[in-house]
Amino acid sequence: MVRRREGGPGRGRAVAAVAAAAVLSLAAAACSSSKATPKGPTPADTLQSALTATLAGGTVTEAVVAVTPTASASSTSKGTGRYSFSASQGTFSVDTGAILGTLDVLVDQSTLYIHLPASVAATVAKGKAWATVSLDNPPAVPGVGNLPALAGGADPSRLLEMLQDGVSSVTLVGTEPIDGQPTTHLRAQVDLDSAARRAPAARQPLARSEAILLGGTTVTADVWIGADGRLRRVVDHLALPGGSSGSLATTANSSGAGGSGSSGSASGGAAPGTPTETVTVDLTAYGTPVAVTLPPPDQVVDAAKLLGQ
Q: Scanning 41, 193, 220, 256, which has its CA 20 to 30 A from the CA of 164?
């Protein structure tokens, strides 16, 4: 009797077929992998990278214009200056229009120093030339219109920290030129209450005060990032709580003319008819030296005490 030899031609052909199939599968997988498009950074990644690059710029130049519609007219304030992220200090010239004229304003950490008009210093301030305002606990100042939001814009670190701690979503809008330079336009939803909760303990008072300065808690932020990877313009749209009357438009750029040089527009997320505050900050000339000389203590008065708060 002849015993059939195992592993004959039939088995060999089966093994060869399985091996070939395995090789083909691996080859197909490799081919598919080589053709896959690598994922780029998400809009949220792009925004956070821009915040880091902006802070790394050391110093920045700002210009601010604030317009507050009133029942019968409008109030306009303008400001230009420079700020140092590393020293947390800045110096600005603020034109409040008919309210107080043009004022020199200094920022030191979370304190504003406002150089008072001579008439106010001689009477209300009892001879003190400067008044201080705590940005961590800003006083209510009747009749100053949009000055609280303008003051908040004077410290761009607040803007960056709000975007670091309070962003819930970020979308890509597109590319748009600002002053002839290409930028990437992102739109973020920001919750100021969430920013205050997420912020490190040292930044929580600042985060909470941002809602006081802006007058609300939910912000739609339009962000333009320059070719250098740094913030070029930020426009915050804030729906005011309780149907507050009036709205605020704040625009800042390097030339001092509100929002010039951009072909794009920034639209807020508020429903039509909802009072909306808009704070726009353009950041330019990174690395420009900033020198701040604070006034002597005997020439300073606390604005909250002047107001009885």
A: 256
